[in-house]
Design a protein that fits this description.
The complex is a heterodimer of chains A (333) and B (385). Chain A has 333 residues and is α+β, with helices and mostly antiparallel strands. Chain A is built from eleven helices and eight strands. Chain A has a six-stranded mixed β-sheet. Chain B is globular and about 70 Å long. Classes of the chains: A alpha+beta (333), B alpha+beta (385).
């Protein structure tokens, strides 16, 4: 139910034109306000407090849809942040809140958050600082853009006098939420990219027939589809926990699996589109640029496969099949 | 498939299926013949008639066949649990595998009452082993070009021709053979029929073919004027193509397309736990578990659609293709991993298991439909015009 209503807003407001404008520096107010006014930032808030009271699994299709539309605001991050702040008993600040899953303190007390999604445009950052949960005012930070065209990501630093006290010891939940959000975003963008490529292969003709008639093209599309399907189900698995926050190993597996799919699917999509696919004017790049950014966000596949591998090595009994079934998926299966 | 992600949704196995798992694990603790990892890595190519009979005595061969025919009348979810436990353990299930997976379901769907009565109970008792009569020396991927033929005679048919790459034929009692029953080869899918061939009949000759690992897991079967009585035709004369397509759907939609290398992963993980794991090993092991988790979820999603009465042919082929890539990648990557330090002795059992799977893994993407054929079929099923 929510997914359809949210997709309606995405279809109407988050057009490729709107995405381009926001990337160029236009205020994202219209998009943000549309989501906020419809109550879609309070999906996790209890119904008694005016929220939707959604369980975690209901977030997967919504966050995937955000990726499918290249949503250029931290809606998913704000939904998660609001839930974590509420749990910490802290009033939720107005405006866009993003997540920083891996912050470090330098020896001189400066707090650095590398490659924060929407770091250049957010008002607040909910951060994991070595396991502590902190709410940081982004307007107090030095913001350094990545320098990559169209990216809203930035590395943020706070001087020690701008760093507040910790709100709790559950900073790791920020990392897990952020990783799971990126897994879903990747799955959505992969799905979009696949759909565009399939359409193109049907529409584009060369040598007297649509290019989709060629075996080499069919095979590449087939392999793309396999990885898109794997990524989609991985994203669902990340949010399959009965609790409030994505469980660690399913989130790890999902970020690893979705990240692994990016190079293959992005490359195949561009290969099948030919030159038009690398133009700014054609929409494919809105999604493939994000796929690359999101693969690297919160750790790519090596980081998270290491987490999974360490957990598997720690077990003393059972097969890898038992581990995959019981530990990498929260759904009792 | 309009929206690709809609074709596969995360599905939980029902509680009864999950409860059944404990029974299967207990059975395996008692009844799995002890064997080294390289032997168990044969997976469903491992033949052990006694094991199959013990499983049958438990009521677990022909799990999805109706109780009235000797089956357990259980759903595909239950079979999924049974299959994944058997394969993860490397149980020697070859004897009953084909009968359970496809021959029984085919006879149930298309067979006469007499055929169902005769064969299904024997399949479920573990006393009738079946093999697949499809490929021929000149008809592999192009199955419609089969030339083995039957001609009508008094009381039945005369069968002439040959089948090849028939897994386990030399151990089986019956073959369900796709043959031409009318017309000419140029008619292709038209004029084909399926027959149950008793492999002990005069004129049938089974020649095991040794494979590169030294096993003889498959055979060539020649038919020299074999008499097939009337009751051996399955379904309709001329309905062979439709029937074989349904049979292939059964063949492709189980969870066995992802589990062929699990015994090796477990062997390697045990080795790492005993001797220590480098960071690269840890990451690699994690990547195997990551991929296995999503493949399994995709396979459960396909099973859910089977249970709903759908025919997820394209989805099953999609999972088979990426599943077999995974199965093949494991020995390929571990071959490099175990040779990281040439001065380091490699555990002999691990080495043999890697070697066996490296040698046999090309068959993973050949059997049940080659990769190249499946990819074209998947692409068309996805909406390519």
């Amino acid at each position: 139910m929510f997914t359809e209503a949210i997709e309606q807003i995405l279809r109407d407001r988050v057009t490729p034109e709107a995405v381009r404008a926001i990337e160029k520096g236009a205020a994202p107010t219209a998009v943000w306000d549309a989501l906020e006014e419809a109550g879609f930032l309070e999906l996790l808030a209890p119904e008694a407090e005016g929220g939707a009271g959604l369980p975690l699994p209901a977030l997967a299709p919504i966050f995937t849809a955000f990726g499918r539309y290249a949503l250029p605001v931290p809606a998913a991050q704000s939904i998660a942040a609001r839930a974590l702040l509420r749990d910490a008993g802290v009033p939720v600040p107005a405006g866009m809140i993003t997540l920083a899953g891996a912050c470090r303190r330098t020896p001189d007390g400066v707090l650095r958050a590398p490659l924060v999604p929407f770091g250049m445009t957010s008002g607040h950052v909910l951060a994991n600082v070595d396991g502590s949960l902190l709410l940081l005012d982004a307007t107090q930070a030095q913001r350094v853009p990545t320098g990559v065209r169209g990216s809203l990501c930035g590395t943020l630093s706070w001087n020690s006098d701008a760093v507040p006290a910790a709100l709790g010891g559950n900073g790791e939940e920020v990392r897990l939420f952020s990783a799971a959000i990126h897994a879903a975003a990747i799955a959505g963008a992969l799905d979009r990219v696949f759909g565009m490529t399939l359409q193109y292969c049907n529409d584009r003709s060369q040598f007297g027939k649509s290019i989709g008639k060629f075996q080499a093209v069919q095979h590449q599309l087939s392999v793309m589809a396999q990885h898109v399907a794997s990524a989609g189900i991985a994203a669902e698995m990340a949010f399959s926990d009965a609790g409030q926050v994505p469980a660690r190993l399913p989130a790890a597996m999902a970020k690893a699996r979705t990240s692994m799919a990016v190079p293959l699917v992005a490359a195949a999509a561009h290969a099948l589109h030919g030159a038009i696919g690398v133009t700014e004017e054609y929409d494919l790049q809105l999604y493939t640029r994000r796929l690359h950014e999101w693969r690297a966000a919160d750790g790519a596949e090596t980081f998270w496969n290491r987490v999974v591998g360490e957990a598997l090595l720690d077990r003393t009994q059972g097969s890898v099949a038992d581990f995959a079934r019981t530990t990498l998926c929260a759904v009792p299966a | 498939m309009s929206n690709l992600l809609d074709a596969f949704h995360l599905t939980a196995l029902p509680p009864e299926a999950e409860a059944f798992r404990a029974e299967v694990k207990d059975f395996l603790k008692e009844s799995l013949p002890p064997a080294t990892a390289d032997i168990r890595a044969r997976s469903w190519l491992g033949f052990d008639a006694a094991f199959s009979r013990r499983l049958a005595q438990r009521g677990w061969v022909g799990l999805t066949l109706p109780a009235s025919y000797g089956g357990a009348g259980m759903d595909a979810f239950r079979r999924f649990v049974l299959v994944e436990e058997l394969l993860a353990a490397g149980a020697p299930v070859a004897a009953h595998w084909v009968a359970d997976r496809q021959s029984g379901p085919l006879i149930l769907k298309y067979g006469s009452e007499a055929q169902k009565d005769f064969y299904l109970s024997r399949i479920c008792a573990g006393t009738a082993f079946f093999c697949i009569g499809m490929s021929e020396p000149n008809a592999g991927s192009d199955l419609a070009s089969v030339r083995t033929r039957v001609t009508r005679c008094e009381g039945g048919w005369r069968l002439n021709g040959r089948k090849i790459w028939t897994t386990n034929a030399h151990h089986c009692h019956y073959m369900i053979a796709l043959v031409r029953s009318s017309g000419v080869p140029e008619d292709r899918q038209k004029g084909l029929s399926q027959f149950i061939v008793d492999l002990s009949l005069p004129g049938v000759n089974v020649r095991p073919i040794v494979d590169l690992t030294g096993d003889a897991h498959f055979s060539e079967v020649t038919f020299d004027d074999v008499f097939l009585a009337d009751g051996t035709l399955v379904g309709n004369e001329g309905g062979g193509w439709e029937q074989v397509t349904a049979e292939l759907a059964f063949e492709r939609s189980g969870p066995e397309r992802i589990y062929s290398s699990i015994v090796l992963i477990d062997c390697w993980a045990g080795h790492l736990r005993r001797h220590g794991a480098s960071d690269a090993d840890t990451v690699l092991l994690g990547s195997f578990a990551t991929q296995l988790a999503t493949l399994r979820s995709l396979s459960v999603a396909v099973t859910a659609r089977l249970v709903r009465g759908e025919s997820p042919i394209v989805e099953a082929a999609l999972v088979k293709d990426i599943g077999t890539e995974f199965e093949q990648a494991i020995p390929a990557l571990l071959e490099a991993a175990i040779a990281a330090d040439p001065g380091q002795e490699v555990d002999a059992e691990l080495y043999r298991t890697v070697a066996y799977l490296s040698q046999i893994s090309p068959t993973f993407s050949l059997r049940g439909g080659t990769r190249e054929v499946l990819r074209g079929m998947i692409a068309r099923g996805l909406g390519l015009r």
